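tmp note - Carboxylic ester hydrolase
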Amino acid sequence: MLIIIAYLLVNVLCEVSANQAEVITTKSGSIRGIIQSSGLSGIRVQKFLNIPYAEAPVGQLRFKKPQPKIPWKGILNSTEDLIACIQPWKPIVTMTEDCLILNVWTPFPRPQNASVMVWIHGGSFAAGYSGLYEGTNIVAVGDVIVVTINYRLSALGFLTTGDNRIKGNLGLYDQRLAMKWVKENIAYFGGNSKSITIFGESAGGASVSAHTLSKGSWELFDRAILQSGNMLMPWGVMTDSQIKDGLKWFLGKVNCDNDENLLECLRNVTEDKLKSVANSKEFWSIWTGPNVDREFISDKPQKIWEDGDVKNQEIIIGVTKDEMFMELQHLLLKSTNISFYLKHFEESLKMHFKNSSKAVYEKARELYKPKCIPSYLEALKPSVAFQSDRIFICGSRQEAKLRSKLMNTTNVYVFQYSHASLVNYIPLLYPYGVFGFAAHGIDVMSVFGAPINDTRFRSDDRTLSMRMILYWTNFAKTGDPNSGTRKLPIVVDKVDTLPPWPQHNDSNEEFLDMESFSQMTVRTKLREKHCEFLSDPEGFIEKATSGSTKNVMTLRAWLTMVEMMLIILVAYFLANVLCEVSANQTEVITTKSSSIRGIIQSSSLSGIRVQKFLNIPYAEAPVGQLRFEKPQPKRPWK
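out:
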């Protein structure tokens, strides 16, 4: 009987502990994790979730810099119950002020001296949480350690009074303390504390950028990856008016006055009230983010760059091709009329250039509006391109150029993610689909390996995802995405290697355009003309026209110019005529019977069009003497 009981206990305990990782003892305390399978057969990882790195920022610690977590006793059991800081999205997890936790994924068994990648999530400094990002497939493919972190959001993380009462940037201080915890404890997980890469997207990318500008963070990381975000972008730091508007709005919502009792009042606001404020309908119209507090961020980012007071490290900088589809997608619910989208584009230009000359407005139209627009989705693209350049792409281009030129950083790598998957990676952001646009945030799911074990994705999505993981993890290990593992762990469509990714330098400005798994193209000068125009519209026009009147024109030169103008006029006329005629017509196909012209039409899959050729006769009409006869091949027609 005792033998049977012992047998049952062994089996039960075995089943209970089969998915439990070893106990890791850190400076903060002991932690037991969970073992789980990855998307690659036979490869398992261990994860340690909800590790507190700071004391709960509540009561007297609300609106103060984070305090290191007091070591706990006993074993902290990693749980699947994820935690989020207070935000408007109502995530299906525990939402609380006591949210300063981090998660660690490691290879199984425990590695030795593995490089570490610390992920800072995006979400406009107001939403998102670490648990949205599953590090398993990065670990499985790249053999690194992945850490994701929470930080305080919106008012709790970034509200400032503009003076010493609440200086703001508390969310950035949270991130720094989490990075410090990783630096001091990651060796216990088998990590290399001297090989730490911080990476993030959108507000997360801007946060990574802020740490490169803030000396207090420099010793805590070695490399950086900026995806769709940095401090040079127009939203990187709050303006004075945004600071005042945000403070006034928040204090009004929690019924506190801006006086000497402000902090006491704010610390007495209930957590339920804070959650209610986060879900106010006006919430997203109030911008709260980093500010120039003269402490964490010592000056305006442009001035810090001018002074060269920036951490000089290896870096990857990139964007998605259609970043601002995120903000413009709602238009697709309103119309399928081409003129509707072109009108919206014209109004956007007029609004942005309302204080500029007519020449500037016309130049913007010339740069962004294509001659041929065959569909309503194509008609949306000028608006997407204009806003993407203005809000995201040109800021990324500027940082890449500054690092290549001023910092003399050798290892600068730039990418553009142009892959338009048929699968909507992020339904939370894109409830109606992505319509073939390489939209904001789409690259993140590739980096985290979402397509690897999701059957909705195609083989090209999986291959591109594995390539990106290898680029990112090679970079984390060596500072060079080309150095390290170059073989994909799974061969898909006979693709098993990484294409070379050239360094970006001030002369060639090369970048890798990630269009698909089979088309990763090296290009130069990312959006050069458009960004130079947006940076200085009047100067751009003056530069383009200067020199034409400085030299005396010879008769031969004048005749040559006239000839060229005639050629351009003819080409312009033909292009417009052909565009109008052929917008919905296919090329002419010549068969053995004769020539056929078809029709182009949109399919039910976003952004994909097909051509159709209807009513092609393959036999003579079965009438008269041919009735009740075998069919006769069609005679070729003219």
